[in-house]
Specification:
alpha/beta, 35% helix, two-stranded antiparallel ribbon, transmembrane helix, membrane, AN11006-like, transmembrane
Length: 259
């Protein structure tokens, strides 16, 4: 403990990176979801930004140079033996996993929304929930429309008071191809903000939304995200919304990652 605080913190960070969290099956033979690295890029290099600069009147979208959320955040922990070594070490190191990790909640048997709700609200204690900074979650279209799901979003949003970056993948395979951005799914964006409490994440700086809708072109996806960003601004949120798409491994290998 005689080392300077800066060096101690760096050591804690190294220990954190050396201890990746290993996925374990709940019971023998029970399948577990595979958590993969997810690299994304803006759809056509465009995002809806509150502090954007070059405005495109044709799409009502602001072009910005804001970088994408980092896809390489760790999913690691700290050994309990380190945290039990002394109270000072525990105070100095215990927040690191929550501030540095990207917590991932995928759709597996059920929506990632319910996995996040169970883990964040049901397992973590208040100081751990407040220390979370980054998350990635997969949800279904109905999670932005059904009352039970919106209540779960509301509780989760009120819990994630310290979250700064959120990546959301919305699967809307059941949506009709003629659904416009200002009706139907546009209403879902408004419901997510108002009844789902998305604007309650006061610390949220960046929201990246991937719309998995096979029948939608990029223009329609961007229009939906613009509607979402507009609803957030009307509720006083400072979050910047980006419409994104997943980069395939082949494209990533060729260096075609935007953002």
């Amino acid at each position: 403990m005689s080392l300077p605080p800066e060096i101690r913190l760096q050591i804690y960070h190294w220990v954190h990176l050396m201890n990746p969290i290993r996925e374990k099956a709940p019971s023998p033979g029970y399948p577990t979801p595979e958590i993969k690295r997810c690299v994304q890029r803006p759809v056509d290099g465009i995002c809806d930004g509150i502090c954007g600069h070059d405005h495109d009147p044709r799409t009502d979208v602001c072009r910005t140079e804001t970088p994408m959320l980092c896809p390489n955040r760790p999913l690691c922990g700290l050994p309990s033996s380190l945290l039990r070594a002394s109270r000072q070490i525990c105070r100095e190191a215990r927040l690191i996993p929550f501030e540095r990790n990207e917590f991932v909640f995928v759709t597996w048997f059920t929506s990632g929304l319910w996995a996040a709700s169970a883990a964040v609200a049901g397992v973590l204690v208040p100081w751990q929930r407040e220390a979370m900074r980054y998350a990635r979650i997969e949800v279904m279209a109905r999670d932005l429309q059904e009352e039970a799901s919106l209540r779960a979003w509301k509780a989760l949003s009120e819990t994630w008071t310290g979250l700064r970056g959120l990546r959301v993948k919305i699967a809307m395979a059941g949506a009709g191809s003629d659904a416009g951005p200002e009706s139907g799914l546009g209403d879902a964006a408004e419901a997510w903000v108002l009844r789902g409490g998305l604007a309650d994440m006061e610390a949220l700086e960046r929201l990246e939304v991937e719309l998995d809708v096979p029948t939608w072109d990029n223009g329609r996806k961007m229009a939906w995200c613009v509607a979402l960003g507009r609803c957030l601004r009307e509720r006083g949120s400072r979050s910047q919304v980006a419409c994104t798409e997943t980069v395939e491994e082949d494209d990533e290998a060729k260096g075609q990652v935007g953002g």
